[in-house]
Amino acid sequence: VILRAVGGPVDQYWNIFTIHQKQDVYDILDTFYIGQIDPRDLVDGKVPAEHVDDPFMNDPKRDERLIVHSARPFNAETPADGLDSFITPDDLFYVRQHMWVPDVHEASHKLVVELPDGEEKEYSMQDLRNRFKEVSVTATLQCSGNRRKHMTEESRSTNGLQWEAGAISNAEWTGVRLRDVLKDAGLEINDVPDDIKHVQFMGAEAYGASIPVEKAVDKLGDVLLVYKMNGKTLAPDHGYPLRLVVPGHVAARSVKWISRVRLSDEESSSQWQRRDYKCFGPNVGSGTVDWETAPAIQETPVQSAITSLRDISAHSAQDSKLLQVYGLEEDSIAVEGYSYAGGGRRIIRVDVSADDGRSWQQAELLSDSRKGAKAWAWTRWRWVLPRQQAGRCFVVKAVDEAYNTQTGEYEPNYNFRGNLTSSWHRVGYRSKPP
């Protein structure tokens, strides 16, 4: 908002960006307070302002099935039927915007790489496509606030959009390796100078973030500058014409509409790097937090969720085929969902309970076709059980290859921002009458 106002009155923009009209944002702005406007400079008690264009007026049209949490900026999660496949359909891929969708075009878009000595190298989209090897990687992107609503409901109030289990999606991304571009720009990627610790990224709409340089240059890290999503040109909501994808890391680091890359001895100074995507202890509140005491979120913990709970009838010809696969002949229940771990750690087990965690069984991990050096994509799972064994609450938890798993309770991992909610996911069940 402040950047859009470019030194003029902020009031009219504040009325457009209604998502920011909340106490935690006011607390941040209080740190920039310098004084009151002299009453003699007011007009009818308000700051004089000229008409401004709505920066959201050119935002793209979105699929009506998306579950919208805010309209301006647009934030919406994937509906349940969009979570039932390994690859999320483009139009149902969750959308997380911090501002408006910028008006950028492939023909004129440039990527600037800035070295520590100030030297810059510029690349057009044609340069990226023609001069570097094209690579495809299957990777899941997950908002740090995915399942925040569950923490609010099971523990205490949290600040931020109240996402349920759909602020996560999976796609095949195609582009060029960031490490190849950095090497071309002059970085010794196999012997990075000691004074380079971070790689900073800036988007065309002013969003900024950074990742450790080790991730950026890792030949197994699969960090891409992307121009295709699921084999098609990126949609405006997902970063057209160029975005960053950092597999295994929180989606906040996968900067859209990327226009500048900077090698630096420090992380990005942006609000979203230093004063937003972090976690603190259960005893810390927004009024007492010291943002410098916690590192920015990068890799994410193990996660899982139930996305479908479906009754299967033994009297249905279509359902009976599924029952035969699992050796069942009676009315049953099919439970499905996703599991995922950051850092490229593979999911090795999904435990599911039909009685609120008192007893457990292992779900089937569904096969898929994924690309990449590590397990960057989610693993979908399924469990089919006789209906008579179902209680009133289904629960799921996942285990990754490092044997990290999810906690049962929310309060021990509570943080006032509601980030990285990953406790057991519970879904109630009520049996239908025969």
Low-pLDDT runs of 5+ residues are none
Tell me, what's the shape? globular
| Beta-strand proportion | 25-35%
The helix/strand class is alpha+beta
* SS elements, strand count: 21
| Rg, alpha carbons | 23 Å
Number of helices: 9
Distance between the termini: 57 Å
Short description:
It contains nine helices and 21 strands.
Write up what this structure looks like.
The chain has 434 residues and is an alpha+beta fold. 13% of the residues lie in helices and 27% in strands. The chain contains nine helices and 21 strands. The strands form five sheets. Strands 5-4-13-8-9 form a five-stranded mixed β-sheet. Strands 6, 7, 10, 11 and 12 form a five-stranded antiparallel β-sheet that branches. A four-stranded antiparallel β-sheet has the order 14-15-19-18. A hairpin with a 4-residue loop joins strand 1 and strand 2. The protein is globular.
Please specify the SSE layout and strand pairing:
Layout: H1 2-5, H2 11-16, H3 23-30, E1 67-70, E2 75-77, E3 95-96, E4 110-114, E5 120-124, H4 125-131, E6 134-142, H5 148-154, E7 168-177, H6 178-185, E8 198-203, E9 208-212, H7 213-217, E10 224-229, E11 232-233, E12 243-245, E13 258-264, H8 271-274, E14 303-312, H9 317-325, E15 332-340, E16 347-353, E17 361-362, E18 364-365, E19 379-386, E20 393-400, E21 425-428
Parallel strand pairs: 4-13
Antiparallel strand pairs: 1-2, 2-3, 4-5, 6-7, 7-10, 8-9, 8-13, 10-11, 10-12, 14-15, 15-19, 16-17, 16-20, 18-19, 20-21
